[in-house]
Amino acid sequence: MRQNLVAGNWKMNLTYPEGVALVSEITRLAAEAAAGANAPEIVICPPFPLLHGVGEQLPKASKFHLGAQNCHQKESGAFTGEVSAKVLASVGCEYVILGHSERRQYFGETDELLSQKLKAALAAGLKPIFCVGESLDTREADETFDFIGQQLASGLFHLSNEEFAQVVIAYEPIWAIGTGRTATSAQAQEVHAFIREQIARAYDAQAALDTTILYGGSANAQNARELFSQPDVDGGLIGGASLKAVDFTAIIQSF
Ligand code: 13P
User: Fold this and answer.
1) Which of 41, 134, 172, 192 is labelled catalytic?
2) What's residue 124's pLDDT?
3) Which of 115, 213, 128 has its CA nearest to residue 171?
4) In the predicted model, is pLDDT for residue 113 greater than 90?
5) Could you tell me if residue 157 is left (phi over 0), alpha (psi between -120 and 50 degrees) or otherwise beta?
6) Catalytic residue list contains 172
7) Which residue's alpha carbon is nearest to atom 7 within ligand 1?
8) Are strands 64-68 and 127-132 parallel, antiparallel or unpaired?
């Protein structure tokens, strides 16, 4: 179901006590905004060891949800150091980020591997937040649409209609991540509209209308409102600004 959504990707930041302190500050500051009629779904994605402690701070039956930043593609077994989707679900995760450009770039995650991770996440009842996005070279070569179309086709569109209905897509241009160089709202809108068109072709027009598509890449308290006002932008996947309670709360209030 399409819904407004803000997800905080804490990446590899914060110790356990720092994370617990931050989330309790966020839930305190954002309590009113999160209770309002226009409130987005709010997903907090801390590092694995913080999941349980952060989850404990989230008010039950509220707009707040817990998410992880990755999962393994197998359900269990001899995969030292890895974490399965089933384990994530058992500590209260409802979402998992998959295919973040940092995972693709630094950990060699391919579309083939990601398609397996998607299946594993869905089988465990998690909602994947599936990331796509082009590099600066790709954008400057005018190949953005081909590239994103390919990421969607080979990473995501193998899912059944029922499986696809559980997926949130995040458009994160790599050149905008952590750089302070945000996509303009027109650039974001153009790619989001393109993603919706591809969904309509792969599934149907209703699936395209029903999909939640987030923007990520230097989104912050100053530019969120303008980005979220675009017709095909349903919210944000927030990195740096999700580590500051005041900023993250302002982003939650930007609808
Ligand atoms: P920044 O908001 O720090 O640019 O990070 C975006 C991101 O990668 C979220 O997943």
Assistant:
1) 172
2) 98
3) 213
4) yes
5) alpha
6) yes
7) 239
8) unpaired
- Return the HEC string of the chain: CCCCEEEEECCCCCCHHHHHHHHHHHHHHCHHHHHCCCCCEEEEECCHHHHHHHHHHCCCCCCEEEEECCCECCCCCCCCCCCEHHHHHHCCEEEEEECCHHHHHHCCCCHHHHHHHHHHHHHCCCEEEEEECCCHHHHHCCCHHHHHHHHHHHHCCCCCHHHHCCCEEEECCHHHCCCCCCCCHHHHHHHHHHHHHHHHHHCCHHHHHHCCEEEECCCCCCCHHHHHCCCCCCEEEECHHHHCHHHHHHHHCCC
Spot the catalytic one: 100, 109, 134, 192.
100
Contact yes or no for 95/55 (Cβ under 8 A): no
Q: Per residue in 137-190, pLDDT tens?
A: 999 999 999 999 999 999 999 999 999 999 999 999 999 999 988 999 999 999
Between CA 176 and CA 240 the distance in angstroms is: 12
Most informative mutation of 177, 182, 222, 251 for ligand 1 (most atoms within 8 A of CB): 177
How crowded is the C-beta side of 141, counted as CA atoms within 13 Å? 10
Mean of pLDDT over the chain = 97
Q: Is 0.85 topped by the overall pTM?
A: yes
**How many independent structural domains does the chain possess?**
1
Residue-wise pLDDT for 11-44, tens only, equals: 999 999 999 999 999 999 999 989 988 899 999 9
- Residue 207 is part of a domain; what is its CATH number? 3.20.20.70
Domain range enclosing 186: 5-252
